[in-house]
Amino acid sequence: MKDFPLISPCDYTLKHYVGFIQLFINNEEHEYPIEIKLDDPSNIKTATIYSEKLSNLLEDNKKIISQMLQNSSDLNTFLIDLKDLLEKKEILLSSKKYPLKYISKMIKEFDEIGWDKISNLKSDLHSLTLNINDSYNRNHKLDLIFPYNYNTEVIQIKADIPEKIDNKYFINELSKIVDFYKNIFDKYNNFWSQLEEIDKKTWVIEPLNPPRSSNYRRIIIEKKCSINIQVNPNNPRSFPIYQFMGSDDLVQKWTMILINKQHQWNINISIYENLKKILNIEFPQKEKMSLSDISDACGICYSHYLTIEKDDKLEKLLPDKQCKNVKCSQPYHYKCIFEWLRSLTTTKKSFNYLYGKCPYCEEMITLPIN
Amino acid sequence: MDTVTKRLIKEIKNIQNSPNEQIPELHPISDDDLLEWKAVILGQEDSYYKGGRFELAISVPKTYPIQPPKIRFVTKICHPNVHFKTGEICLDLLKTEWSPAWTLQSACMAICVLLTQPEPSSPLNCDAANLLRCGDELGYKSLIQMYVNMYAKQQ
């Protein structure tokens, strides 16, 4: 054949071709045995391609290849297209492999830090999870992704901590990564013990199963009222940013109490102790009540928790919007009420706000557009 | 689980906890598909539909409760606001006045009320509406009761 001297027909029927296809990959020439069968020699669309060595590639790109067959006028032009495709795919595949030297270096590093710290190791060494214990007996997980072009890119590290660490100038050595993060984990000990005490002794309704990176807690105060506190990771015992949520009169009552007694905040005792002293309450425990005693479900989806996707993670959110009408005060999830207001023709939009009627009492609801 | 399913499961529970005697049946047709419902409503004692038993087909959209359910009569009924052939219902709550505060049960109750309080000014069945608008109470009553006897008699 014109552009493929190594491929020739088996006989005069021109129904069967055998030979080699040459692929240039990383400046090296490779020859792969290939076989082409045609049901109708004049019609390229009836062709089938066989190659044992390329079978994975052919299988993965089945769709594109059959499309190429449909669009080609003769066997020669089809083989040019096929060669092009296979070369591109092969290069992509070979770039996703580590050379032996790199692999042995990594294995040495694994030995150094200890294999007991390593889990979820991908068979091609592309990613793994490191289990690190800090000095206070907390177990932490570090997700590591090793870049394929390790010469120019750094290891990507995902840690569950309340700050973002830029590891651009970071050394690509596992033992140093472990030491570095151990220090960071120890630094946040005080912050985490504050939150752990809250998680243990109060009823946290949001976030459920909080990750270590989360710095806020929504705690039940009494029926129909909760407080959302946001703890400063670098100064965890300081007075937190707070917001009461629930029915209007209770929110007003508790906000007044907290404002008037703010000066009593004592940074020598924990957040939990401070809140307990200042609000002068026993925090309700989860075991004694159910969620429907404490707060109403969303008036649209009828659920307490709405699962939404945020940064590739699923989060469960409680209703965070409430009708301002005191007699109604129906709670809604932001997303639910947003969908409803957006579907209404009577809803007005101005700057970044929606103004529309509450589905229950027709009071105006103002909603920022995120 | 998607939001429609969650909400419908809650509604089923509420219906089981507080059934309405006007609506002896209100449930999904099969357990596999919660979006298709069957309902049966009874004609009220003080109305011309007394003794009638009417089947409704409810089709819940995936966007429920943002969008209203589609409800139509399966049992033939003569009513100014119901299409005689298709069973389509003209009721503002199922169209422009819908709000998520309504449920399938309350929508069925609204249809029960519509039976006793027709709106002849927006008719789907002009013959019935005209009788009512002309003030032919006797003709209107006889026509309705004839159809109740023909199609909607309780066994």
Automatic annotation (TrEMBL), chain A:
Source organism of the structure: Piromyces finnis
PANTHER family: E3 UBIQUITIN-PROTEIN LIGASE FANCL, UBIQUITIN LIGASE PROTEIN PHF9 FANCONI ANEMIA GROUP L PROTEIN
Gene Ontology biological process terms from the UniProt entry: interstrand cross-link repair; protein monoubiquitination
The FANCL UBC-like domain, residue ranges: 101-188, 190-286
CDD domains: DRWD-C_FANCL (cd23832), DRWD-N_FANCL (cd23831), ELF_FANCL (cd23786), RING-CH-C4HC3_FANCL (cd16490)
Domain FANCL C-terminal: 297-367
GO CC terms in record: Fanconi anaemia nuclear complex
Every Fanconi anemia complex subunit FancL WD-repeat containing domain range: 2-88
Protein name (record): RING-type domain-containing protein
One MF term in the entry's GO annotations: ubiquitin protein ligase activity
InterPro entries hit by this protein: Fancl, FANCL_C, FANCL_d2, FANCL_d3, FANCL_d3_sf, FancL_WD-rpt_cont_dom, Znf_RING/FYVE/PHD
Automatic annotation (TrEMBL), chain B:
Transmembrane spans: none
UniProt GO molecular function: ubiquitin-protein transferase activity
One GO cellular component, as annotated: peroxisome
Keywords, ordered alphabetically: Ubl conjugation pathway
Keyword Hydrolase included in the entry's annotation: no
Domain UBC core, first and last residues per copy: 3-153
One Pfam family, short name: UQ_con
GO BP annotation list: protein autoubiquitination; protein import into peroxisome matrix, receptor recycling; protein monoubiquitination
Superkingdom of origin organism: Eukaryota
Protein name from the UniProt record: Ubiquitin-conjugating enzyme
Organism of provenance: Piromyces finnis
